[in-house]
Each structure stands twice: as C-alpha cells, then as structure tokens.
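Here is one chain, start to finish.
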Amino acid sequence: MLLCLLYAKLGIFSSWATLVVPLLILGAAALAAGSVFGRGVQVSCGARFSPDADPRAVEDRERGRATDWTLLGWYVLAGVVLSAACFALFLDGPESFPQEYDNVHHLGVTLGFVQSGNWSPFAATLYASAADSAINPLPGVGFYPTVWNCLCALVVSALGVSTALAANVVNFVFVAVVFPSGMFLLMRTVFPKKTGIVAWGALCTLAFSAFPWMFLLFGPLYPNMVAFCLLPLALFSFMGLFSKGAGVAGRAAAALLFFLSMLCCAFAQPNAVFTAAVFLAPFCARQAYRAAGRFAVSPERRPLVQAACCLGACAAMAAVWYALYKAPFLQGVVSHSWPALFSRSEAAFDVLTLGFRAAGAQVALAVLVVAGVLYALVKREFLWVAAAYAIMALLYVFSVSSDGPLQHLLTGFWYTDSYRVAASAALFAIPLASMGLWAAFQGLRRLAARALPKVPPRKVGIGAACAVATAFVLANYYPGIALPVDGIKATAFEWTMSYMNRQNDAKEPHVYDADERAFVQEAMRILPEDALMINVPDDGTAFAYAADGARVYYRYLRTYGGSDETAESKLIRNGLYDISSNRDVRDAVERIGAEYLIVLDQGKSEQESPRLFTYENGRNWKGIDSVRDDTPGFEVVLSRDDMRLYRITAS
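Its structure:
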C-alpha cells in the first residue's frame, strides 16, 4: 500500500510487475541481511511468544516447532475445506458476484485501478482514467480504504481475469488461509499451555455466521472482511510485546509486526483498529494489574495498588476513546446513523443465541460459548478473554437497540452498523467456543474412560474427539451446507448460507441477469471501444462497468441532485427524452461526449424486473426512463425484449 501511495505521487503506473518485483527484491535483501546479522539471535514464536508462557520451562524446541506447524496445517486444512463447502461451491461459476449496493463500488474501483494505474486510497473512484474523470457527474475523490481493491487489481493485472473472478479469489484466500492462520497464532498465544484448546479452535474459526460469512452477504463488506481477517495477526503481535521470554529481538519483531499489521488494518478498514482496541483493553488492564504486583509495597497494600493501576489503565483507555470520538477527522464516521431494530431484551437474546441479525440462532455454538465463559471464570487467567467478549456483546446490544449520542459514542467507529459490531463480537467468541468445545471433548473422554476401562486411553481419546467433532460439524455447519429447498431456516448459519446461495444462483432474479449481461457484451462488441453510453445505473448497468468494463456514464447509485452534481448530469437525468427540442440538453450530451443510450428495463416496473433499492421508483431518472423507440432524437441500434441500445441522433 505504501508503494501504491509512492507510485501515485511519482506518477508511476502501478501493476503487478511494478509492485511485486520490487517487493521480491526487498524481501530477498531483508532475508539476506537477517541471515548475516541475525546469526545466534533467537526470536520466540508460537507458544513461547505468549505473555503466559513460562520462560523457565525446559521445552524440546524441535518438538514444539513441529507441534506449531502441525496445528497451523490443521487450521489451514479446516479453513480450506469449510470455505470450499460454504463459499466456493455456492458460486454459480468463477465470475459469480453478489449484485448488492456496495459491490458496485468494490468492483468498479478495482477496475479503475487497473485502467488508470493509480492504486492510491486517495484515488478510489469509478471514474479513474483521465477521460472518465473529465465527465464524472459527481466530481470529488477522498480517502477510502483500498487494500482489498489493490489485491484484486493485482490479480486482474497479473492474470488478465475479470474483477469478479479476482474478487472471489481474494475472498477465498483470506477466508480459507489468511484468517485461519492468524487465528492459529492468536490462539497459540492466548493458550500457550493448552494445545488441546488451540486444536479445537480450527473448527470454531469459521463457525460463526456473523463473521466472515455475513460480510460476504451483507453489503458485501469485503474491505472490512479483509481487515478483520488480518486482525488476529495484529493481536498476536501486540501480546508478544509482553512475552516473558521474548528478549529484545523478539519484542522488536513484535513491535514491527504490530505496527505493520495495524497499518494494513487501517488501510483495509480503519474500524478494525477499534475492534482490536476493545479486544486488547481487558488484556492491557490485566497486564497493568500484574505489573503493579511487582511494586515494592507491603502485602497489605498490594491489592489496592493493583486495583488502582488497573482502574487507571481503564480510565486512560476510555479517555483516548472519547478523544478519538471527538476528533474532527472521524466525525464523518462516528456521526453515521443506523436506526434501532430491536428492543433491549430482543438484542440481548440475539447475543445469547448468536443470531446476530440473521434469522435463526446458533444454539449449539451458543452453548459452547457459555461453557467457555464458565471455564474462563474458573481459570481466571482467561477471564480477560470473556471480558472482551462481554464488552463487544454489550456494544452490539446498544448498536442494534438504541439511537442517539450513546449509540454513536459506543459504536460510531463502526458507523453504528450492527453487522460490523456483531462480526467483532463473533471474533472475540472464537476462543470461548474453542474452550467450550475442548471442555465437551474432555467431559466425553472421561465418561468414556469410565465406561470402557479396558480400552486403551489413546483410543478412547481418539473416539471422543471424532464424536465431538462430528457432532459439532453436523450441528453447526451441515444445515447451512445442505440447504434444504423448503422449510424454515432453523439456524443463523443456515439462513446466511441460504442467502449467499441465492445471491450467486443465476436462476434467481437479479438486477443484472444473464440476458442483460449478454446484451451489454453484444453492445460493447459493436460499438467503438471508447463509446460512452448514457444509462440508469439501478437497472443493472452500474455492474456493466464494474464487472464487464462497459463505458457507461452513470456508475454511482446515490447522491444525485445535490450541489456536487454537474449541471450536465442534472440536465441529462431530467430531460434527455426532450433532447430534440431542448438545446441545453443537447449541449450537455455533446459536452460529455455521449453518443449512445443503453436501457435494460424499458417500460417495466420494479416488480416485473428487479432494480437496486436506490432506484426509488425512478424519481431521479425520469428524463432517461421516458425515452422510447419513437422518441425524436434516438435511433434503435440493438433491441431485445425490454433492452435497448439507442444512437443519439439529435443535433
């Protein structure tokens, strides 16, 4: 991302070659320097990188390293298998994409990056090329987190594939590999002495409907998904700063890794930084409490001093939170409002059952989370994990059940969006569910050992593990993967998977269906490459640019009619049908260089042919929607059903 910013400043065209080659050279140089200057320096990793690890313990280093690699492989294997079953198999082809509001921007910005070579987060626009920038009906570009877009643009640039295919590749890699790998590091750090809990975490990492699956459904929130997938790495590296056996080199490595991961999260989606803050707040309070225990005070006063330090740390973190809430550069984020949807009791029940805005509940998973909380209450070294989840669950309750200043103060950093807060809560619940699943395994193993005293303990353990894993997969994952055609979706996971399937099913009614896409592609074949087509974006033509590269005039879906809209755009939207008799409209069309009009839903209502929700009965598009085959100033070039391509002949 820093290289993208530098290239934009220097006017260098970004592509896979100009980005990957320098990074490979830099990486090779760093590896060589580390090999020469880092000889004899030990940097702790895995369980030894944890604040709770015992630096005095004599550990077989090779065996510990082998255990870490085995567990990492188990996490990645589980991630790939579950992602294939819950995501890849639902795609109706490699170029399938959800036709939702946010995806117009996601895919469009990615294509703009590839076309313009400017991959800066300050150049995130659907009118990226010089020619398109000159005719942008809504001029103005600001900061937008674009890590996801850069990764997709890298795939498009390297392989020459479509933006939709690149999006599916990036999403799959992050959900199947990056997120599970990061969760392994975090779990190994949180539970350095509990390898069993770490192992069970592989099945819990992708078990929650709220994350990552809901982010692939609602919005979709791809940039936020990438940021949250990177988050475990940031949490792992921060906790490594407090490792008892890390040494100077280990702490320096942790500090650098934390800085870089936070930078990546900020450029992917800044609210991930605040999710990290909530997770780490109880951890920091615990560390302050522990540090105060080493003060030279009398045993009688030590508890009071520890409590004071803990409360002081909490007060300092709260003060920073409030200062950022009042910061001018964040007002556009924290002032964003989502209305209350539930009562307090309904929201609390939604948390308890892990529904998190999906229709249904995840009862089996909820039981495991509760069991994990109970285990944390008993094993107080993990109490901070339960506290972090409790805080985020409380924030979710406020985000979904209240309006006003308190909602903005507590959840404004996530746009007061309950889906994003729910995803944060789901992230925090993964260690708790893992503890619960491990406890279920231990309980079954002990019962089986008592019932079958003659069976070798190892076989009893394997049998208990297989039974618990099978029961959990069947209870949590299978209903979503099976997708019954009829009947009520009983679980939140099943509901989420069902809607993901519908989003990607070509047989379902879509805004930009297969026939419309074929019509657009045929129009592109017969028109000059740089031909500009006037359009109504809500009829699917917004995706014609984002997914197929069609040069349409209107690519954004909202904010038309405001002071930032160009005069030409206003004239065209409101009066294109009158182009033959209205000179102002003719001049506006001539100034933007448009020679064609493309219509995908002529004469049909929203009930007959779906449009995006921003269409609002066409109130912004009367001048274009009123054009028909006999309208003066237009000549039919291509016609099929309710789809038309007109040449603008008025002069």
